[in-house]
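Researcher: Sit down with what I've pasted below and flag anything odd:
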Amino acid sequence: MLLVIVLQLSILALLLTANNVTNGPKAIVFIHGILGNYEEGTDLQRWVEEVHPDTPFYSIALYQRLNSLVPLWKQIEIISKDVVGIMNNHTDGIHLICFSQGGLICRGILSTTRHNVDTFISLSSPLAGQYGDTAYLKYLFPELLKSELYRLLYTKEGQDLSIGNYWKDPHHLEKYQKYSNFLAPLNNDTNTPKMGEYKQNFLRLNRLVLIGGPDDGVITPWQSSHFAFYNSEEKVVEIEQQRYFLEDSFGLKTLFNQRKVKIYVIPGVQHIYWHSNRTVFNTAILPWLI
């Protein structure tokens, strides 16, 4: 009789443990932006702990500061090992919160791994590319205007800089298609034999949250955070009219039609404050950390 009771208690404990793993808050992985570091996730972690105290939170401390200029595929190769390890420890799924250039790193991970990411929250990331004079560019290239950068970035050497991997000059798209070895193949702007794999993996997402706003001041155009971008006249073409959306090149249209894409336009937030703005957290991030 005692043995039966012990067995029943053991089974109950296992069921409760399994229930906690399944129904508890999903782990969160944060990836910082260009020239940033893991501390950019500090405020988010604190706010998450206030609301969901048991949430595991991992802020990736790789390729920080100047090391963030390393080519994106190289960063993805190393960072994905850490992220996949976290996924393996949280088999019920994780959430990704990725800031600025970190959003492109997350896109690379989502496209190249059989991940278990439930929600990808892209926090002001140049998902459709970058083309604009900003403080970051003036710091990196003080003598060059945006109209001149293609000469540097659309070269083999230029692709050795992370920003060259997603620089998209709307006036030199042929050179972009020829030289961009990250964003162009990822968005199917150039043919790649891996596009089927990229799409299949991207569609494993349950939800895609796109956050950006008109006062960002760095992401150019700011609508790139919503997969929109300039045409040759530098007029913004919205996400639904982008070729990769219309052709469903990597699964964006499928997710959109399934109502899995959530788009937030939040004014009044400068680029460096997206991850430390409580209103942004409460409005656009917290509702999806379930």
Q: What stands out?
A: Confidence is low (pLDDT under 50) at residues 1-21. The first helix runs from residue 2 to 23. Strands lie at 27-31, 57-59, 94-99, 117-123, 207-212, 229-230, 236-237, 261-265.
